[in-house]
Amino acid sequence: MTEEQLRRVDDAIASYAIISDPPPKELQAVVEMAAYVARVPMATVNVITSHEQHQVAAVGFEAAVCRREDSMCAISLAIGGQIVVPDASKDARYSANPFVRGPLGDVRFYAAQPLLTPDGFAIGTLCIFDTEPRELDDDQKTALLTMADRIVDILELSRRTRALNDSLVRMEEMRDELVRSNEHLAAFAGQVSHDLRNPLSTVAMSLYLLQEELEDDDEPTGVRTVERALRGTRRMQTLIEDLLAFARVGGTLRREDVHLAAEVPMLLADLAGALGGADVTLRDLPTVCGDATQLRAVLQNLVANAAKFTRPGQAAEIEISGRRSGEGWRIEVADRGIGIGAEDAERVFEPLVRLDEGADGSGIGLATCRRVVQAHGGRIGIEPREGGGTVAWVWLPDA
């Protein structure tokens, strides 16, 4: 074998961690079965690297490690295929080997079946032997091949299980880090909100007092100036509350069956003022699994946006519906409003992004919606509606 081939074999062996870690216990059972079926006193699983032979499971003798150049099975791998030798002392390929003539052994009967990985790398053998000459019948030869395949299956299962466990550990670490990040974000938002509220409250209180004084003095210009300042403080207070909500939502969920057919009419009643003369249609609203309060807030935000961004001079036309989609439900809030360009369909979910600076809002609503939906294991998006308008959709998985 070339150095490159040997290196690739070493990489394949390393991927199974069969030398660095304790080998799977199932290998010992296969080795014992091989010895029993062949009626021989000794059997082993040999893993052969570029430099050594490792007997990782054995019956009839103590497993050990030897140099590759001393290995009978290294010779067999170079030959290829199943090898059955009735008397190795009379076979020119093996007669001079230290396992045959000493000092490592006095092997006479010898048989080896290569262990071939799914990628075609021969990483070792299932080997059976005896100090007395003997033969194998066809059934025993077939059994040797079958057991060698099962050994590779065991190694593959062990490797994939180890990879899965590693992935689970990484996922748990990521989850823990996400929890810590969420806690830090909530704490930061809470502190910032607290720090901003105090001076804002002082400003607002002073403006209210000033407004009362100006009203008593009948100075309408001054009153209008103060009213504009008060509106500014109220907008800042709303932004603070939205930021705090964005930091807090999506953390701890109270999962339960949420009957949207009952929830949606109630949130429409809450939005009566914002909806005005809107034409709202409800269709096929499902029951989903999630946090009722947070999901209701998501839909309320989407419906409010549908009512807000209408075409000039037109009443809002809104359709709220649900349908089965894969292993979950897709809920849609469709309108006939001004629409959103494809280049902005993703950007609107970023915090503080406002496509229309003249519209009311803080630019936090859709970012909060995405945060809630992702906490439920779902997805959210916006796409054009056929015939004009926008479809805001939420996909939620089954429980």
TrEMBL record:
The keyword Kinase applies. Signal peptide: none annotated. It catalyses: ATP + protein L-histidine = ADP + protein N-phospho-L-histidine. Its main location: membrane. It comes from Nocardioides zeae. Its EC number is 2.7.13.3. This is Sensor-like histidine kinase SenX3. One of its GO terms (biological process) is osmosensory signaling via phosphorelay pathway. One of its GO terms (molecular function) is phosphorelay response regulator activity. Residues 191-399 form the Histidine kinase domain. It is found in: Cell membrane. CDD domains: HisKA. One of its GO terms (cellular component) is plasma membrane. Coiled coil: none annotated. Gene3D superfamilies: 1.10.287.130, 3.30.450.40, Histidine kinase-like ATPase, C-terminal domain. PROSITE patterns: HIS_KIN. Keywords: Kinase, Phosphoprotein, Transferase, Two-component regulatory system. InterPro entries: BphY/WalK/GraS-like (IPR050351), GAF-like_dom_sf (IPR029016), HATPase_C_sf (IPR036890), HATPase_dom (IPR003594), His_kinase_dom (IPR005467), HisK_dim/P_dom (IPR003661), HisK_dim/P_sf (IPR036097), Sig_transdc_His_kin-like_C (IPR004358). PANTHER family: BACTERIOPHYTOCHROME (PTHR42878:SF15), TWO-COMPONENT HISTIDINE KINASE (PTHR42878). The keyword Kinase applies.
